[in-house]
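Trying the structure run again after the queue cleared.
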Amino acid sequence: MTGFLDLYSEKDTFLHRLDPRVKLLAVALISVLAFILAELLYLVVLLCFILLLLVLARSSYGKAFFALKFVIRFMILITLLWPLFDRSGTPILFSIGPLDITEPAVWRGATSAVRVGCFATVWYILMFTTSQRDLVRALVKLGLRFDYGLALAISFRFIPTFGLTIESIKDAQRARALELDRGSILRRSRNYVSILVPTIVYALRTADTLALTLQSRAYGAFSNRTYLREIRMRASDYVALTVVVLILLLPAMAKYICGVRI
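Done. Tokens:
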């Protein structure tokens, strides 16, 4: 479960070596580009480009499948449901009772599904290639207060821990003959109280221990902070950032200045 919640895989690729600030800005700019593009063909090209980057990230197949299966399901759901609610345009392909399925609605549904796929998939590049430590450090470098960065880092760190704790509590309660998957909804809800109470107690104990740990290390005693590992922009980072900016600017200029339909 920890591996699923932490998608980062330590590899030696150019994506892993990029400055995390560059990756944050690149992912944000590609997301904006997915919003700018309106034609299905260009969105498919963008999605293929994103998937190529995911392949170059060399993440494990298990993590990639775990992450992308939710995106694929959502894309299929949008493609199927969009024509049912958007009945504008002609020609009508077929009818389901009072519902008319039109060809333009089908294409708009497919376009929206691919756009959502671009939005969701591009962020996996960041998650596959950037450790939680580097991600938080990049946010602090970009102006986030260190206190907020620390809270974010602690959240990232303890989500897998709490997940494993909940699973352990469930196994312990099942060993005591507690049935969590049988009976009515009301009965199952009452049974989950036996999971909720120990989880809350564990969370309070963890918070108290963490507070004592921070106090023992004199957290907040000095305004000037030092860091074990600094992140610095290199020449390759500036080149990558320039390429990503051009990837966004060229289609934006073609659409909004030259009037090209893309």
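The two ends are 41 Å apart (CA to CA). Worth checking whether this holds up in the mutant runs.
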